[in-house]
Design a protein that fits this description.
- It is built from nine helices and five strands.
- The protein is an alpha/beta fold.
- It has a five-stranded parallel beta sheet, sandwiched between helices.
- Helix 4 (86-92) runs parallel beside helix 9 and helix 5 runs parallel beside helix 7.
- The protein is globular and about 45 Å long.
Length: 258
């Protein structure tokens, strides 16, 4: 059972998730005209195809946990010239086979490509998948509604392809310094929509955004170094807020040494 102290952190709905099982051949995901829901390979760049291939060859195939997302997830790693969360990662996750499947710049459609044609799910059966995605969609002009649909499509695909894996879906983290910034409202709209995916059995939703905020709702560069990417202090807060729920999900499987 999830500990009482953390039940309120999970927003679980037993109602319908709002994702229709219309088949996309071979993957069981909903066909859509929304670009946020259509798999597309990310354009070439610093973290393009070469990095993706390195990532696939580097990450352990026996992983218990898969972290899936964009640069915010990617920067858990010790990357040259980037303030990162590697010390926090090593402290909490190094003892566990964990895969970091975060790629800078990725949007929902890029994650869908990786999960379908890119090979991210090949030969891996993580017990828990931590999914954090969507901020790049919002930053680049996608509506909160379309962004939420993209996230829903990813979740449905993961449930279809890895039915034994638990999904810990994280609410998009707050960003930009001022609490009055319009993107804050967009993030809340997305999080309100995707929390309905939680079913209390295989999909869990966790919104830890408040741990990154100051008392007045603003954001400090000591926590989010550029008001979107996390400083080491931010990664520490992420881990401390999420770990009780994450490790409890592993223990529910009865197979974790954590």
């Amino acid at each position: 059972m999830i500990k009482k102290a953390f039940i309120m952190s999970f927003i679980i709905s037993m109602a319908a998730a709002g994702v229709n099982a219309v088949e996309l051949p071979g993957h069981g995901i909903q066909e859509s005209k929304l670009k946020t829901c259509i798999p597309v390979q990310a354009p070439p760049g610093k973290w393009g195809a070469d990095y993706h291939n390195i990532m696939l060859s580097r990450e352990p195939k026996n992983m218990q946990i898969m972290f899936l997302g964009d640069s915010i997830t990617m920067y858990w790693q010790n990357l040259p010239g980037v303030e990162n969360g590697s010390k926090i990662w090593d402290k909490y996750y190094k003892p566990v086979p964990v895969g970091n499947y975060g790629i800078s710049g990725d949007k929902t459609e890029h994650v869908l490509w990786r999960l379908t044609k890119g090979g991210d799910l090949r030969d891996v059966t993580p017990r828990v998948i931590v999914l954090l995605i969507g901020i790049n969609n919002l930053y680049q002009g996608d509506s909160p509604e379309d962004t939420a649909e993209g996230i829903k499509t990813i979740v449905y695909l993961l449930r279809n392809q890895l039915p034994q894996s638990k999904i810990l879906l994280l609410g998009i983290f707050p960003c930009n310094q001022s609490p009055a910034d319009p993107i804050r409202g967009k993030i809340k709209t997305v999080n309100s929509a995707i929390q309905k995916l939680a079913d209390g059995g295989n999909i869990y939703f966790l919104d830890i955004g408040h741990v990154f905020l100051e008392k007045d709702g603003s954001i400090s560069k000591a926590v989010l170094r550029d008001y979107i990417h996390l400083a080491e202090k931010g990664y520490a807060r992420w881990a401390e807020a999420m770990n009780p729920c994450l490790f409890d999900l592993l223990k529910k499987e009865g197979k974790s040494d954590v």
